[in-house]
Amino acid sequence: MDYFTSLIGQNQAVELLTQAVSQNRIAPGYLFVGSNGIGKSLAAKYFIDLLFSAHLAEPRLIASVQNRVQQRNHPDLLWVEPTYMNQGKRLSIKEAESVGLKRKAPP
Fold it and tell me: Is 74:59 a contact under the CB 8 Å cutoff?
């Protein structure tokens, strides 16, 4: 299964991630950074799917793992995104953008 088919223009990153899994040389952490709209979240999700499913042979188990990853409810996954505070209340990225909040510094 090719996990990265809909990720366009990131051949070097895709190769690095797939080789890490195929050679069983996974780093302790990965940081997906870059401009808005280049596919950071999508690449991270595909990489997690590949990483958590590569050793599984049964389609039912693969679907179960991918479902837990999609819901961000897998015990081996910590998904970190920027958070925003406005008047003591934590906001999602979309809520922050709707009220005009911007990051003070790049990640």
Answer: no
Q: Measure the CA–CA gap between 103 and 19, rounded to whole angstroms.
A: 34
Residue 91: strand, helix, or coil? strand
Contact criterion met (CB below 8 Å) for 57 and 36: no
- Predicted model pTM: 0.70
**Rounded distance, CA 98 to CA 64, Å?**
34
Contact 66, 60 (CB under 8 A): no
Per-residue pLDDT of the chain (107 residues; tens, 9 = 90+): 578 888 888 899 999 999 999 999 999 988 888 887 888 888 998 999 898 888 888 989 889 988 998 888 888 888 887 777 777 777 777 888 888 877 665 55
14: left (phi over 0), alpha (psi -120 to 50) or beta: alpha
- C-alpha distance from residue 25 to each of 7, 16, 18, 21 (Å): 22, 11, 10, 6
